[in-house]
Design brief:
It contains seven helices and eleven strands. The strands form three sheets. A six-stranded antiparallel beta sheet has the order 1-2-3-4-6-5, with helices on one face. The chain has helices at about 50-65, 105-110, 115-130, 185-190, 200-215, 235-245, 255-265; strands at about 1-5, 10-20, 25-35, 40-45, 75-85, 85-95, 100, 135, 145-150, 150-155, 160-165. α3 packs antiparallel against α5. It is α+β, with helices and mostly antiparallel strands. Helices cover about 30% and strands about 25% of the residues. About 40% of the residues are buried.
Length: about 270
């Protein structure tokens, strides 16, 4: 794969035996920069339905636009000619930093992080959401999309993002079923049931709070949570309980508000 990386053209070699993930829209492999042997992840769009290219381009726009230590970024992008199944064609790709694992892998290994580490990651990821919300609503926050690289947790996978109004490039989506299975906000689930609920930045807050709860307890915050379900500081519980409210109006309204509340809660933990 020839692409422009840090202002100069370089080559990346894909290892077809090191597939990192696959979904309905894209497939992800590990790749290496030919000269330095540095490892990256290459995400290749394989979907061929109406709007799939627009969705992938939107993800590339966000990857190039956001700047935060705990948000995934774009190293390079382009188009690759390859055979996928029986079809040979030109497929868009984006090259990103490669992670060691994701949060679900971490919790499955029963290595719950220390409280000190959790508090730092909560502050960092909520700050990352605040930055993302300047550009887009994520709509697909789940443990599998929180990648772990060294000691840093990174919010990734912007394939379902909706660009926000006011950024000059808003896109209206017609999807009725939007959100991660098992981690949907109540309004996302209500859309599946045929209601007209709107998915907003407060929906992202719900999903990230659910991920935080899972990271801290190893359990999903199904139903209405109570203090007895939480093992930690009251200040952090109070913020998460509000963020997990079934009513969007009760939650922090966006990542910026959630970040401020989390930082304040950690300060008093």
């Amino acid at each position: 794969v020839r692409s422009v990386c840090d202002g100069f053209e370089t080559q990346f070699e894909i290892d077809p035996d090191e597939k990192l993930g696959e979904g309905g829209n894209a497939i992800v492999y590990k790749c290496r920069e030919r000269i330095t042997s540095a490892e990256y992840a290459i995400k290749i769009q394989i979907a061929n339905y109406q709007g799939s290219e627009e969705r992938f381009n939107r993800e590339k726009t966000i990857l190039r636009s956001v700047h935060h230590d705990q948000l995934m970024t774009c190293i390079a992008s382009g188009v690759i000619e390859m055979t996928m199944g029986r079809r040979r064609g030109r497929y868009p790709y984006v090259i990103m930093p490669v992670a060691d694992r994701n949060m679900l892998d971490l919790i499955d290994a029963q290595h719950l992080p220390s409280k000190e580490d959790l508090m730092g990651q909560f502050c960092g990821l909520s700050g990352a959401l605040a930055e993302l919300h300047r550009w887009a609503i994520h709509r697909d926050i789940k443990p599998q999309n929180v990648l772990i690289k060294g000691s840093t947790w990174i919010l990734s996978d912007f394939g379902l993002c909706k660009l926000v109004a006011g950024d000059g490039v808003g896109i209206t989506m017609s999807d009725n079923k939007v959100g991660p299975v098992y981690w949907m906000s109540p309004e996302s689930m209500n859309r599946v049931l045929g209601n007209g609920d709107e998915i907003t930045k407060a929906s992202d807050v719900f999903q990230l709070a659910a991920v935080f709860w899972f990271a801290a307890t190893g359990r999903h915050p199904t139903g209405i949570v109570s203090r007895s379900d939480w093992h930690g500081a009251d200040s952090v519980y109070n913020v998460l309980a509000r963020a997990l409210s079934h009513s969007p109006s009760v939650r922090p309204q966006d990542g910026e508000e959630f970040y401020s509340q989390i930082v304040e809660a950690v300060r008093h933990a």
